[in-house]
Amino acid sequence: MKLDSIIRKYGREVMNSLKDSHDEESVRHILEAQGHHVGDDEVKDILSLLNMLNGGLRELSLDELSQITGS
After folding, report:
1. Secondary structure of residue 20 in the 3-state scheme
2. Which of 35, 37, 56, 64 makes an SS bond possible with 60, Cβ 3.0 to 4.6 Å?
3. How many CA atoms lie within 13 A of 11 on its CB side?
4. CA geometry: angle at 26 spanning 24 and 27, to 5°?
């Protein structure tokens, strides 16, 4: 899942709330509090993206890099 997809689907305000989330439960809680119902896979994808954006630096695969950059 790409950052712009999250923003389009849930809105910028929700994305700003998600920035401080560090586990699946907090991501799910924030989204459900805003009236969104999400599956486990989507929560994991969002959390993975948030971890990368929050400095979870590591060597990325070409697929991951493509997802982040949107290319």
Report:
1. coil
2. 64
3. 8
4. 65
Q: What's the pTM value of the predicted model, to 2 decimals?
A: 0.69
In the structure encoding, which two tokens stand for residue 22, read together? Answer: 């560090």
HEC profile of 25-60: HHHHHHHHHCCCCCCHHHHHHHHHHHHHHCCCCCCC
Burial bucket for residue 14 (CB in 10 Å: 0-12, 13-18, 19+): middle
Total Cβ atoms within 10 A of residue 34 = 13
61: which 2 tokens? 């695969």
